[in-house]
TrEMBL record:
Keywords: Membrane, Signal-anchor, Transmembrane, Transmembrane helix
Compositionally biased intervals (Basic and acidic residues): 67-84
UniProt GO cellular component terms: Golgi apparatus; membrane
Organism: Glycine soja
Sequence ranges assigned to domain Trichome birefringence-like N-terminal in this UniProt record: 101-155
Protein name: Protein ALTERED XYLOGLUCAN 4-like
Domain Trichome birefringence-like C-terminal span(s) in chain numbering: 156-449
InterPro entries assigned: TBL, TBL_C, TBL_N
Any one Pfam family match given in the protein's UniProt record, by short name: PMR5N
């Protein structure tokens, strides 16, 4: 049965910092002068020994603070001092106190010095696709680069490619999703290439299934194209393809990524932009409804139903993957990144020509982009709870989230717009994908924060 509504929920991660300190105990020696000279000499000798002990042993009675799990800082990170975290010292005999929670998804874009927010240029990173190389395609304004995401209650450290590659050494990571997921992969490649240039080891005929290998770190990065996460086949009408009419199998995952899943250590899941089309919905081999088709005797649904069922089916498949559980695979949901078409859609003259971020007060949180994010978070919470249950059976399915929706709702300035170089679609604007370099680079900063948190466990 399809569900029309579900209660919206969201999640935030709690971070604890534990410090243990011990107080120094002082002892006083009481001497009685009447005990005689031998006792006085012995006392002087003891005093000399203690003096040498304190002189050559730094902090002799102080325990080194123990760093607990921390999603913001890595003790091995050479840039750690740039973003100090205040911790609360507690007595080891008392319960450890929980530090104030920091939700990295809540914050604002703050201006920074020119060039201090970027990691690469459109010419220094040679793997940027022409369609995302906005400066190469004629964009001249640069203010959109001079902003940094600042969470409300903490700092988000800059991306460190060496730290990232160290954490994923010997691992396999796949981004599973549509062209916006590929957009993230291209951004991550630019960031990681500052430390190691990967080998391009696989490319299919449509450039949708890609693999890169970082030999120094034995790390494999994969892009698996999947528009819906579930099976969605485009209908042919009068022998013509490209109809944008799809038959959706709500209870069947897309095998293109499902077959890759058991090989992975990290699966980065995302989807959303393809669901706003005419869709015939099927479940258990029967048609159960339709989206945007308005056909008689067929129940009509809004696109949110398809989105919900797609993520629920995908997450259930992951939780049921025994090999994934044995490998302790980590599934990361990347929440919906909005498009910013103004005065029309992509095919009706819509454009996005802003040059600076907007404030949170200017964001319409009633729009469908935020609703999509809410659906994703609800299904994420459901999957994480099921994963905990599976963990009790010995299958350790861990779910994390890189929640970019709020931050990207404030960045209508980050899209290619007319600067995407598609000579076959002149006059159309790309307000869905993101310029490289650009605000999308923050997604990898958030992903690195999640990896740090996971590695501490």
């Amino acid at each position: 049965m399809l569900e029309k509504t579900m209660k919206t929920s969201s999640t935030m991660f709690q971070d604890r910092h534990h410090n243990h300190s011990s107080g120094k105990k002082e002892r006083c020696l009481s001497l009685t002068l009447g005990k005689g000279v031998p006792f006085v000499l012995t006392s002087l000798l003891m005093a000399s020994i203690f003096s040498l002990f304190f002189l050559y042993n730094p902090n002799p009675l102080t325990l080194t603070p123990h760093q607990g799990h921390d999603m913001f800082e890595n003790p091995s990170d050479p840039k750690q001092e740039e973003h100090p975290i205040t911790t609360t010292k507690v007595s080891p005999s008392k319960p450890q106190k929980e530090q104030k929670t920091c939700d990295l998804s809540k914050g604002n874009w703050v201006p920074v010095l020119r060039g201090s927010s970027t990691y690469y240029t459109n010419s220094s990173c040679t793997t940027i696709p022409d369609s995302k190389n906005c400066f190469k395609q004629g964009r001249v304004d640069t203010d959109f680069l001079n902003w940094k995401w600042k969470p409300e209650q903490c700092d988000l450290p800059r991306f460190d490619p060496r730290t990232f590659l160290h954490m994923v050494r010997g691992k396999k990571m796949a981004f599973i999703g549509d062209s916006v997921a590929r957009n993230h992969v291209d951004s991550l490649l630019c960031l990681l290439s500052q430390d190691e240039i990967p080998k391009d080891i696989h490319k299919d005929s449509e450039d949708r299934f890609r693999k890169w290998y970082f030999p120094i770190h034995d790390f494999t990065l994969t892009m698996v194209w999947s528009r819906f996460l579930i099976v969605g086949e485009e209908r042919m009408v009068n022998g013509t393809v490209g109809t944008s009419i799809f038959d959706m199998q709500l209870d069947k995952v897309d095998n293109d990524w499902a077959n890759e899943l058991p090989n992975l250590d990290y699966a980065i899941i995302s989807a959303g932009h393809w669901f706003f089309r005419v869709m015939h919905l099927h479940e258990a081999g029967k048609q159960v409804g339709c989206v945007y088709c308005n056909q008689p005797n067929i129940t009509s649904y809004n696109p949110d139903i398809t989105i919900r069922k797609a993520f629920r089916t995908a997450f259930k498949h992951i939780n049921a993957c025994k090999e994934c559980g044995r490998k302790k695979m980590v599934t990361v949901l990347r929440t919906f990144a909005p498009a910013h078409f103004e005065n029309g859609d992509w095919n009706t003259g819509g454009y996005c020509n802003r040059t600076s971020p907007v404030s949170e007060s200017e964001v319409d949180f009633g729009r469908f982009d935020w609703e999509v994010r809410g659906i994703q978070m609800e299904e994420f919470e459901r999957a994480r709870s099921e994963g905990i249950i599976m963990g009790k059976l010995g299958l350790h399915n861990r779910f994390e989230v890189v929640d970019v929706a709020r931050a990207m709702l404030m960045r209508p300035d980050g899209h290619p717009g007319e600067h995407w170089g598609n000579k076959w679609m002149r006059g159309y604007n790309d307000c869905t994908h993101w310029c490289l370099p650009g605000p999308i680079d923050v997604w990898s900063e958030l992903l690195l924060a999640v990896l740090k948190r996971v590695n501490e466990f």
